[in-house]
Write a structure and sequence with these properties.
Length: about 280
Amino acid sequence: AKNSGRNTLRFFDPAMQAALDRRATLESELRQALKGRQFRLHYQPQVDIERRLIGVEALLRWQHPQRGMVSPNDFIPLAEETGLILPIGLWVLETACELLKHWQGNARTRGVQVAVNVSARQFRQLDFAAQVQRVLETSGANPALLKLELTESLVLEDVENTIAKMHAIKALGVQFSMDDFGTGYSSLSYLARLPLDQLKIDQSFVRNLPGRKNDETITRTIITMGQGLAMEVIAEGVETEAQCVFLEELGCRVYQGYLFSRPLPAEALDAFIAGS
Ligand code: C2E
Ligand code: CA
Ligand code: CA
Ligand code: CA
């Protein structure tokens, strides 16, 4: 790179330049997506041992006008880097709370929870608790049915600050789940101090059940830990009966995965609810 003055770096490596161009394109398309209403939420059912629907996880989808459906794994990292995750995340929260409000009016869906993924950058905003409060008030959603999913890396960035903020949000009546649990490095002493309602066993462990001894051990440990700390334990990525039976034998009571349903648009969820 050669400095061309005025703080601009010019790259002459064509491959690197191409990558930067793609990134710039994606970034401007992401900005466009928000204005152009190209985002959707899909909802993946979470069921109890009787396979009754007890909650859903809201998962972001980008319906790109040319490229079709773009996976969140392909745009959330850039959205985080650029800060676009802030307006996007707020839209997700608002949309999820509108669904909750809508569900409150129907006897079949009244108690069903909605879980929302929260990115680190979003959670670190000084006014995040106030944002959550405002969205709850504006939508009229029951706070007890909203669950925020945090990751271990987010929590560990600044444990003291995280705990304080979690308590402020819990005071609104909202619940917390620790997503992808077991993949990070949270120590047991931290875990016990966090006001968590749920631990979510990561699908990378569930995938190899039953059979892979190490993953069986980790799964068993997480379930025992959750029971000891009075936290609900949910397994994600459950794809087979054998996985489900094994998890149930270990004492896991809540499941999410393709075995029950893929993430569905809100309209298609009605069919799942009618059948559950
Ligand atoms: P995650 O929070 O761990 O979500 C679970 C992912 O596993 C989802 O992928 C879901 O579709 C997929 N999945 C569910 N059941 C199964 C199964 O049985 N087998 C397999 N192989 N996969 C299953 P998805 O929707 O592509 O989302 C990927 C990631 O993007 C999420 O991982 C989450 O980290 C992020 N994400 C999605 N929506 C949002 C959002 O609204 N905000 C933020 N900050 N992140 C989001
Ligand atoms: Ca999640
Ligand atoms: Ca997860
Ligand atoms: Ca995951």
